[in-house]
Amino acid sequence: MTDTEMFCYNNSIPYQKNLSTKSISTFKIGGLISLAVYPLNADQASLLIKFFNSNNIKYKTAGNCSNILFSDENTDYVLIKTDNMNSLVVDNERIITGAGNLLSKISTTALKSHLSGMENLYGIPGSVGGAVIMNAGAYGSEMSQIIEETEYVDCMGDIRIVGGDSHCFGYRHSCFSDKEIVTKTTIKLNSGNYQNIREIMTLVIAKRKASQPLEMPSAGSVFKRPQGYFAGKLIEDCGLKGFSVGDAMVSTKHAGFIVNRGNATSEDVKKLINIIQSQVYEKFGVKLEMEIRFF
Questions:
Q1: The domain at 213-294 falls in which architecture?
Q2: C-alpha dist (Å) from residue 239 to 3, 85, 234, 244, 255
Q3: pTM surpassing 0.85?
Q4: pLDDT (tens digit, 9 = 90+) per residue, 158-204?
Q5: Catalytic residue numbers?
């Protein structure tokens, strides 16, 4: 048993050895992670980060891994996953949720509670923590419009709370760094009509199914939206729809997605990304910035 495993055991922190990143990534790509840890709350996350810092142990944090491209190689860092931070409380027009809950679950909870504000976010495959960090959005809605307060553990292992404008939300951006862990957030919604909310959610899912390659493994939109453009349209106008490197392919349904046709590697995806960025810049003078994260 390693020192980290012993630490987790002594502090009742769930962990898993030799975790296949293919099994946790929506891209279905990657190698093995020697150790993944699953803190139950902010206190355990705080203990972990302080332990890692004092022992010079490298770590990364992740939620549902829906916007991550894992390396093909086995890793030398510990992965902190927020899956077990799944507390959920509805308090009038507020939903107080652990970071590990999926956005789809929170959207459904809001519907059952006759609360409006989550409808357009329904179907985003990420967890709450990742959605807050990335200020996830869809169809004109963003997390920034509904987040009231967030509990997180900073890079020193201290538990902190940030509220309102202090989140510093921007397009796919917030105040949180890669070494910090969002553990809980408060979502402020409005009372609404159950049937109206349900109809919007049904329409949103129909739009997603019609326009996105949900039937194939991917990590969602690969690139951020360039100001004044749409990444998918730029890529399509370069004639790259259906273009592939190995089993990594530009989706024929939405050129802003790269899909795994079965046995794509991380290197396949990275090579394809480089080709896309190069051709879009050469033809339109636009630099495409990454939305997915490399682990």
A1: Alpha-Beta Complex (3.90)
A2: 52, 43, 9, 12, 10
A3: yes
A4: 999 999 999 999 999 999 999 999 999 999 999 999 999 999 999 99
A5: 172, 221, 291
